[in-house]
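Researcher: Going back to the complex we discussed earlier. I've cleaned up the inputs and rechecked each line, so this should be the final set. Can you rerun the prediction on the complete assembly and write out the structure?
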Amino acid sequence: MALTGMQIFKHMPKTNCGQCGVPTCLAFAMKLASSSATLDQCPFVSDAAKAVLAEASAPPIRGVTIGEGEYALKIGEELVLHRHEKTFFNPPGFALLIEDTEAADAVATKLAALKAATYERVGQTLRSNLVAVKNASGDAAKFAACVAAVAGAVEYPLVLMAEPAAIEAAVAATPLKKPLLYAATAANLDAMAALAKKLGAPLAVKAAGLDELGELTAKLDALGVKDLVLDPGSRTLKETHQNLVYIRRAALKKKLRPFGYPVITFPAEETADDMMETVLAAIYTIKYGGIIVLRDLSPEKAYALYVLRMNIYTDPQRPMQVAQGFYPINGADENSPVLLTTNFSLTYFIVSSEVEGSKVPTWLAIVDTDGLSTLTAWAAGKFVPDRIAAFITKSDLTTRVKHKTLVIPGYTAQLSGELEEELAGWKIVVGPREASELPSFLKAFKP
Amino acid sequence: MAFQAPVETSTTKIRELTLGANKTVAVGGQNALAFHSFEGTLPNGPKIALEVFDTTPADWSDELKSVLGDVWGDPAAWARKCEGQFGADLICLQLASTDPNGANRSAADAVATVKAVAAAISVPLMVYGSGNVEKDAEVLKAVAEATQGMNVAIGAAVEENYKSIGAAAMGFGSKVVGQTPIDVNMAKQLNILLTNLGVKIENLLIDPSTGALGYGLEYSFSIHERIKLAALKQNDAMLQAPTVSNLGKEVWRAKEAKASREEAPQWGDARKRGIVWEALTAVALMMAGSDVLIMRHPAAAQLVRQAMVGLA
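Model: Rerun complete. Updated structure for the full complex:
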């Protein structure tokens, strides 16, 4: 549970030495309480105090990292039930399920397609995160061969779904960095715990319901296995949804440590229909899934899931922005009109989508307005003549187009006079107010 | 150690509102967040209203044409197909062609269409105007008059025209959908204005505006969550009206939903992509608490219905 500044202050050395960067211990305690400082900045805090404070300041849902390096996936450390309360922090990982009974060439094709389904949107890379390899054959040698093939084909971290002996054999043959071991159960708990410790790997825990789940995680915690991922065992939408809500609430509101871990979900095991699988994955993306395992991540489904994940995990207090600059649409050339607007991602998407729909070659000139939408940016002094003029003047726009005409959004018509003064030689045209009116405007307009 | 279920009950509920006269459909009535049947009762669950347009759509994708093209230009046949073949809970007639910036068809034309559609179906009817503030006031007044006794929902009433639409609804016994631009306080304020005008709160629905997946969905999602939390946890009477998401037209405007395979090979199968784009938008809004989902593609609606059944 989060402590207040005064509660933390009680454990401070009270020397006011200032070595932490703030003048007093009380001020430092306040910074700790607001998470704007970390305890290691204080050189004199006692070990006893450290233990108390670390325990108290541990996140209610533990952060768990699978894999290492560029492709590592961090999940957990969520603080709220509803994104508007603050934000959701660590987006869930999408995992493609591969069974070791599948033909090797089919697996290779799937993995190549998975890697190819990588997209750019608003400066973010959208892709899947994990491959889950399942020992469906029951044969340890087949499993090891499949793990080796998958690890050789993709950089994504793996989820190894097998009994401890098969996992141990596979990892002995193919060393992996922090794969997720799936799963410790009441039947194999000690062996899985020992293996997770030996490999330094995170461990999934599968139980038949929440009662047993809490018991198993408490045991694992006592055994020193801390990086856990929960599987409450349900395989129907209704139960899984309920479990996800219960687990998130138990961790955040009841501070129940045994439930303070991210959760793995299996749309792959809840339906045989590919479209329904995508819908289930969407629900678990929205409602607290940490890892989502699917059989099908074909582009037409995966891209929608990636965009949904991005929408849900966007910080509500920080609008998404696109980079300032010129964006050619429909093969814009030197005679195409130039439409000016702000860098709020939604403005950009809506305007660009309407322009694309018009099929008229057009340049979008995007001004950095700190992610504010047109009217807000205008009101905040960020979409104003001097700022726009500075952007245009310092840019290479005159090498891109032969004309000197700029179209501004209809709602900011009042800018036109002053902007013409600031931008000598340029003609300012007031465009439509709504993006939906752009196609008819563009069809009639010549710069 | 037995798990103590962290249930959170609510002492209040979303107002239940009944639409239709012949075959009625109730929306709202729940005292818990979406699909939280483990801590409350949700007697009706969200409903799917399938869209019918009053004119032949101009630039819809080939996929939409392949499923709906045979009834384009015949709103009554379109509505019949949505009810009979696609199992719509409600029909939402979109009077797009009344827009003065488009075909500018008259209120009398609109009334004729509404009557033809109403006669073709037994499920309840919702009627949305074109979104043109002045024209909607005129058209929806005529629609309210022509549908007296049918218990239809008309919309969207906005800040600039709520007086005429609200008055017509009161006079002829329609329900009113009030629409505001993605803002909890504005949604509340419009309901206050409508009730001050004399419209009973029992006759109101909230349309807090909809952004499609990738086009502002996160805002619509959070507005729905905030409205439902305010309604259920803070007992905010003005926000206890059921909510509506007019999502079909937003989704199918997105290039991700309508681009052909040739235009966007990197996005995979075009048919499934459009359906997934609409289904995911609808599912997100439904999980956030929306009570009426206005949808376009029957296969997307079918997926959402399957999810509703699975969650209930």
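Model: Worth noting: Chain B touches chain A through 54 residues (CB under 8 Å).
Researcher: Good, that matches what I expected from the previous run.
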